[in-house]
Specification:
By secondary structure, the protein is of the alpha+beta class. Helices cover about 30% and strands about 25% of the residues. The chain has a single domain, classed as Creatinase/methionine aminopeptidase superfamily (Creatine Amidinohydrolase, Alpha-Beta Complex), CATH 3.90.230.10. The strands form four sheets. It has a five-stranded antiparallel sheet. Bound molecules: 2-amino-4-trifluoromethylsulfanyl-butyric acid and cobalt (II) ion (2 copies). One cobalt (II) ion binds next to loops.
């Protein structure tokens, strides 16, 4: 079932999204070589709680931390621990904020210091792929229009698309219908309607699209070939003539 949010629900989701945005901005200030991943987790946790939200990754199906931090070949669901950031790291930060019963979900990828041109391009083009996907969102469009645009953009820029993980509807639950894949055919799939809220989240790889779980835990997804991956995500509202980003400025 795909829920259509009322004006009251949308207003709460804007607030949830705003706390998510502010928490990302706060974390960004601390992204420097030497900082430990679990310090970033603590900073995000405290910030979100202080703003009246809850970092709802914490305890979600047993997830042990408040945010996901995925380094280099880690694609998603990286678990913050005592590792320190260092120059050249590709770091993806992804988390949800629950506020008055509603969820927001956003992810960004950063490079610490500098990296090779191809890694810089991986990150830039993944952010751009999200924008291209968003540009297809409006009432009457199909999910496949969004998926296809992301896939085409990724391939044009020499990147592969992770297929094992997809975007999703969002609302009172972190993950709701419909799925929002980052690959597919135009004019196919669910028709978007005003009042739907979606988390759109391309995960693009520099090497092959294949990903797998590590043998250390049941969470961290890595690229099979060890090449880096990038991830950008926004929670958006579908409108009559486009979309509104709920996790933006
Ligand atoms: N934020 C992730 C998503 O984009 C979900 C994280 S679930 C967690 O769908 F348990 F790992 F936090
Ligand atoms: Co997310
Ligand atoms: Co998501």
């Amino acid at each position: 079932m795909i829920s259509i949010k009322s004006d009251r629900e949308i207003e709460i989701m804007r607030e949830a999204g705003h706390i998510n945005y502010l928490a990302h901005e706060e974390i960004k200030k601390h992204l420097k070589p030497g900082v430990r991943l679990n310090e970033l987790d603590r900073i995000a946790h405290d910030f979100i709680i202080k703003r009246g939200g809850f970092p709802s990754c914490l305890g979600y199906e047993g997830y042990p931390k408040s945010i996901c931090i995925s380094l280099n070949d880690e694609v998603v669901h990286g678990i913050p621990d005592a590792r320190k950031l260092k120059n050249g790291d590709v770091v993806s930060i992804d988390f949800t904020v629950r506020y008055k019963g509603y969820e927001s979900d956003a992810a960004r990828t950063y490079i610490i210091g500098s990296a090779t041109k191809e890694v810089e391009d991986l990150v830039k083009n993944t952010e751009e792929a999200l924008k291209i996907g968003l540009s297809k969102v409006k009432s009457g469009a199909k999910i496949g229009d969004v998926s296809h645009a992301i896939e085409v953009y990724a391939h044009e820029h020499g990147l592969s698309v992770v297929e094992d993980l997809v975007g999703h509807g969002i609302g009172t639950n972190m993950h709701e219908d419909p799925d929002v894949p980052n690959f597919g055919e135009e004019h196919t799939g669910v028709t978007l309607k005003t009042g739907m809220t979606l988390a759109i989240e391309p995960m693009l790889n520099l090497g092959s699209k294949d990903v797998c779980l590590t043998d250390k835990d049941d969470w961290v997804i890595v690229t099979e070939d060890g090449y880096p991956s990038a991830h950008f995500e926004h929670t958006v509202l579908v409108t009559e003539d486009g979309y509104e980003i709920l996790t933006g400025e």
